[in-house]
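Example record

The entry below shows one chain as it appears in the dataset: sequence first, then structure tokens.
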Amino acid sequence: MIRFVDTPSSINIVPCTAPVLRLLLSILVKVFMRLVNKPFPNVTAPMAMPISADAAETIALKALVWLLGNDDLLPVFLGSTGADPAEMKERATERAFLASVLEFLTMDDVWVVAFCDAEGLAYDYPMQALTALAGAKVHWT
């Protein structure tokens, strides 16, 4: 569990014991550092055109962070992809890995709805992002 300790000079995070939480924090730092170097795409506005690759990556990174915070779904993802937490950290910025995260997420409408509701995104964004990252045409069925 993460606890915040308020000191007069700053707020310090006490080291957590759960490996998943440490992994989540390291990925968040990696995502933040990546976003600092380029403008943040607007992924919440209605899209008239196909989603850009940068916006697709941002949605996929959000999906990865959401997945890491989901204690019920994370083991299913790890089991179905064969990925381990260390590999997830290393590959968090690879488009192919991000596409695999979105591919997994879009396997179940309940997962898509939960993710989009948590992030304030339209329900079709994960599939649009997957299409942009994978470069594939997705059949409507």
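Notes for this example: Helices lie at 19-36, 53-68, 74-81, 85-91, 95-105, 109-119, 125-134. The chain is about 55% helix and 5% strand.
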